[in-house]
Every structure is written in structure tokens, then in C-alpha cells.
Specification:
Layout: E1 3-8, H1 14-23, E2 27-33, H2 37-46, E3 51-53, H3 56-60, E4 67-70, H4 77-86, E5 90-93, H5 101-114, E6 118-120, H6 128-137, E7 145-155, H7 164-180, E8 186-192, E9 202-208, E10 214-220, E11 222-234, E12 238-242, E13 250-261, E14 269-279, H8 288-302, H9 310-328, H10 341-352, H11 362-366
Parallel strand pairs: 1-2, 1-4, 2-3, 4-5, 5-6, 7-10
Antiparallel strand pairs: 7-11, 8-9, 9-10, 11-12, 12-13, 13-14
Bound molecules: nicotinamide-adenine-dinucleotide.
């Protein structure tokens, strides 16, 4: 029997959850709720066996329901997730977990205290392209990582509740924290509003990581091209993920710059560009949302900590909080605030488990393979 799941918030993105939850053997779509009547009518027509409700309290009152997916607008996440955890449900919440770092930490604590699974929809943790890129940049030949550059642009969709940074950058921050396995020591961000005063539709964000590693993010709702690109530059090699491509999404460039002695003056060096082969590793995986939902069902059933658990959500919100403060300060560098020691502890725990930070393959999930550190709670 699949995990009995209900969906709270069935708008644009929630619809995808309805589809995936109804398709997978690991889950059973039992109920759905949305405040909007037209959304409820659409669900009732499409999923006749599913209980369609209006309010979150109605869905949580169903004792047979084991878990909920929260896909409301971000500003509603905190209340809905807290109520669901207190009602004994496992929760998969969309990103960002909350819009305030203290609230995110409170939810992560609450999940640990209640013994419920809290997972955040950091979907790129379940993206085969990101995992292939991550494997390539941690291979010995790649050399130390110098910097990362991430671009996430499109023309819309434009959200009414948050700016483009809160909408788009949590994805890239989650990728950066996963690949570099560190928190930034300084964050600076500049944002500009062309569509609506006071709500940035484009942002340029720089994360300064320990030991001089940098990550730059460009996110925009106002761009002619849909771009989802991650570049990682290492000492010996460079790698690019083009997540819009369905084939050959990852390329590893055996390129770099070498220092060679000059012949004209003893003891001086000149920079020489070295160009080698381009390797295209295979990228095999299911639709990331299906992988994510399958991982959630596995974590909830097996009582294992998911890869993108509540604390992972806290770290992303902590960086976003710094991004927002820097945006307000016109791009001045700010320090990410760690709310309390538990956040740091959880990060150390993840660092220790870094080698195991891979989402389960379908086979591993089916076999209930243990994936993250000690995992069991
Ligand atoms: N992982 C991804 O790639 C991805 C993509 C798009 C959106 N998202 C995230 O998904 C979430 C939803 O985004 P969206 O684009 O679907 O928004 P949306 O506005 O289209 O849908 C939100 C729905 O939630 C409903 N809702 C709000 N509060 C509710 C409540 N208390 N009880 C029941 N229903 C409620 C609204 O009526 C609405 O239909 C956001 O957090 C967003 O960041 C993630």
C-alpha cells in the first residue's frame, strides 16, 4: 500500500503533485484541498476518487491520511506545516520552507520533536543532471572548485506574493549548498524592479564561501530566454549543466589555465590556456518531481531523514534571509544568521554524511536502502 497523501494548495505547481501522487505505486492520492472554488472543481473532474475539500483543517481531520504535500503560496507555508505536523502528519513542503528563518527553524525542531518527517521540495536534490554534475566536480581530476555561476531566467511566470529572488533563488542556493557542502560567510545581492515598484523581478546575488570559493546567481522573471544553467569552474576542469536540455545536459570541459616559466626572465611565469576534451557523462533519471515524491514516501515509511529535510530548508531560508537584507541595503554584504546551535549541528551532521548525500535510485528506494548517515530517528 502506498503512503496515503493529501495535497494542500492545488494551483499551478500543486497540480503536478496531484498527477505524480496518483501515478506512483509508492503513494496513494486520497484528498486535496484548495481555497479556490474553480481549482476544486477542476480536481473533482480530473480525480473522481479523491476527496476534494476547501480548508486545511478538513484535510488534517482525516485520521487515515498519513502525510500532506503543502503547495500553497510561500507565505502560507509556516501555518499549514506547523498545523499538519501537530496533527501527526508527515509533511513535504514546497520551497521556500518559510519566509523567516526563525519560523523555518521552529518547523524543523517541531518535526524532530513530533518524530514526523519534514521534507522541503528542493527539487534539484532529486535532479539526475545536478547529481551527475556533482559527481563530476568531486572527481579527483576536477581539481579544487574556484567558483560557481548559476542562471535561472525566463519571461514570467510573475508571482504576486514574493519577489523573483524568493521565487527562484532557493533552487540555486540549494544546489550551491549541496555541491559545496558549506554555508556562505557573506552574501550580497542587488535587485531591480521593472514590472512593479517594490518587488524585484531581477536579482544578482553573490555568495562568498569559505576559502575564497564564490557562487554567483542571476535570477529573473524578465528575460527573453528560459535558462537553467549551472557552471562550476575547477582548477583543472570545468563543468556545465544545461537543465533545459533533455539530452547531453552535462558537459565536462578538460580545460584550464597553467602557469609556465617564461623564457625571457628567470623565475617569472606566464598563464597558458590549456584546452582538452569535452566529456558528456550519461544522465539517467526519472522526472525529478517523481524522484522527490518517491524519496519522501520512502523517508516517511522507513523513518529515515530525507536529503532535503527541515534543516536543509532552514539553511536555504537563512541564505535567502541574508539575500533579502542585502537587497534592502542596496547590495551591501551581510552575514547569514544562524538562528541557534541546532542549525549548525544539523549542518555538521550533513557534512559528516556528505559522501552519502545522494538521492535513492528507484531500486534502492524499493529495497528501503539507507542513504544519509545514521538516518534513523
Ligand atoms: N519546485 C518547483 O519547481 C516549483 C515550481 C513552481 C512553484 N513552486 C512552489 O510551489 C508553491 C505553490 O506555487 P504555485 O505556483 O502553485 O502557486 P499558485 O498560486 O498557483 O497556487 C497556490 C494555491 O494554494 C491555494 N492556497 C493558499 N493557501 C491555502 C490554504 N491555506 N489552504 C488551501 N489552499 C490554499 C491557493 O488557493 C492556490 O490555488 C510555492 O511555494 C512555489 O514556490 C515550486
Amino acid at each position: 500500500m502506498g503512503l496515503k497523501v493529501g495535497v494542500v494548495g492545488c494551483g499551478q505547481w500543486g497540480q503536478n503533485y496531484l498527477r505524480v501522487l496518483s501515478e506512483l505505486d509508492d503513494t496513494e492520492l486520497c484528498a486535496a484541498c484548495d481555497l479556490r472554488a474553480e481549482v476544486r472543481e477542476r480536481i473533482a473532474a480530473r480525480y473522481p476518487g479523491v476527496r476534494v475539500l476547501t480548508r486545511v483543517e478538513e484535510i488534517l481531520a482525516d485520521d487515515g491520511l498519513e502525510a500532506v504535500v503543502v503547495a500553497t503560496e510561500a507565505r502560507a507555508h509556516y501555518e499549514v506545516v506547523a498545523t499538519a505536523l501537530r496533527r501527526g502528519k508527515h509533511v513535504l513542503c514546497e520551497k521556500p520552507l518559510t519566509l523567516a528563518v526563525e519560523q523555518a527553524a521552529e518547523l524543523a525542531h517541531l518535526a524532530d520533536t513530533c518524530g514526523q518527517t519534514l521534507m522541503v521540495g528542493h527539487i534539484f536534490r532529486y535532479n539526475a543532471g545536478v547529481n551527475a554534475l556533482n559527481a563530476a566536480v568531486h572527481a579527483p581530476d576536477f581539481g579544487d572548485i574556484c567558483y560557481m555561476c548559476l542562471v535561472r531566467t525566463n519571461l514570467g511566470p510573475i508571482r504576486a506574493d514574493v519577489n523573483a529572488a524568493w521565487d527562484l533563488a532557493p533552487h540555486d542556493i540549494s544546489i550551491v549548498l549541496h555541491v559545496l557542502n558549506q554555508m556562505p560567510i557573506r552574501v550580497s545581492a542587488q535587485g531591480f524592479s521593472y514590472l512593479r515598484a517594490g518587488r524585484e523581478d531581477v536579482a544578482f546575488i553573490t555568495l562568498e564561501m569559505p576559502e575564497g570559493v564564490a557562487a554567483h546567481l542571476r535570477v529573473s522573471w524578465l528575460d527573453p530566454r528560459k535558462v537553467r544553467e549551472v557552471t562550476v569552474v575547477g582548477r583543472n576542469q570545468m563543468a556545465v549543466l544545461d537543465d533545459v536540455q533533455t539530452v547531453e545536459a552535462v558537459r565536462i570541459y578538460d580545460k584550464g589555465v597553467m602557469q609556465e616559466p617564461t623564457y625571457s626572465s628567470f623565475g617569472e611565469f606566464q598563464s597558458v590556456v590549456r584546452t582538452g576534451e569535452i566529456r558528456i557523462p550519461p544522465v539517467k533519471g526519472d522526472e525529478p518531481l517523481r524522484e522527490q515524491v518517491r524519496h519522501f514516501a520512502w523517508a516517511a515509511r522507513e523513518r529515515q531523514r530525507p536529503l532535503s529535510d527541515g534543516w536543509d530548508g532552514v539553511r536555504v531560508v537563512a541564505v535567502m534571509d541574508a539575500v533579502q537584507r542585502s537587497l534592502k541595503a542596496g547590495g551591501a554584504p551581510v552575514l547569514p544568521v544562524m538562528v541557534e546551535p541546532a542549525v549548525v549541528d544539523a549542518f555538521a551532521w550533513h557534512q559528516a554524511a556528505a559522501v552519502a548525500l545522494q538521492p535513492p535510485s528507484r531500486q534502492e528506494s524499493a529495497e528501503g536502502g539507507q542513504l544519509v548517515g545514521s538516518g534513523a530517528r
